[in-house]
Amino acid sequence: MAKKSKAKPAGRRAETSLYAPVKAFLEGQGYTVKGEIGSCDVVARRRDETPVIVELKTGLTLELLLQGVQRLSLADTVYLAVPAPRGTSPVFDRRMHKLLRRVGLGLLLVHEAGARGRTVEVALDPLPYTPRINKRKAGRLLGEFARRAGDPNPGGTTRVKLVTAYRQEALRLASVLAAKGPQSPAALKVEAEAPKAGAILRDDHYGWFERVERGIYALTPAGLAALNSFVGRFAPPASLRPASAAE
User: Fold this and answer.
1) Is 149 helix (H, G, I), strand (E, B) or coil?
2) Strand, helix or coil at 30?
3) DSSP output for 152-197
4) Beta-bridge partners for 78
5) pLDDT, tens digit (0-9, with 9 covering 90-100), for 110-156
6) What's the CATH number of domain 12-124, 1.10.3470, 2.60.40, 1.10.10, 3.40.50?
């Protein structure tokens, strides 16, 4: 019985097509380049300098990232090389660049053949990276965490309106107006436990409130509908709870 031939890894031929331009690019910088050394696709060395390792793939995949991270145990300078994309691609995603920087990997883009053949572009050099905290965004994150009452949104929620601290405050305002009728911002600030009552009523981002006379606000039909749709996802203010629950 004839033996079945072993299938070749998909895309391997295309990966080898990246080798020649990457080798030429590195040799142009004075490196001696050899392919398939140990587990590495490309190893380059210039005089007594530490080696440069390049992993070749037809696309920027998780498998390529994992290979690159493994190669960091062999050399400090590791590049991932992929064909330059023609349209939208993860290689142009700033988040992908941040990830590569975070793990210390570089990125080479191999362009299609032109007048000078296939050229290589250094999209990212593997340099030490320390992420900087965005203090403004971090402050907003902690502020939202502190102001939000309870835990109304299960982690991973999608396609559902989230109950933010701002929305909770607006819902408390709506619940008081629904129960007690039109009131002033000053009264609502106390009864609805809403420090931003004046701004929320005035800006009316959700269309839940309307000014019925100077300094007096009422609930709109949209606001009443919102109370019904978010029932159970926010805690009513103490002024609306039964006496036993409020104590």
Assistant:
1) coil
2) coil
3) -S-TT--SS----HHHHHHHHHHHHHHHH-SB-HHHHHHHTT-TTH
4) 53
5) 988 765 567 898 988 888 766 677 888 889 888 988 889 888 888 87
6) 3.40.50
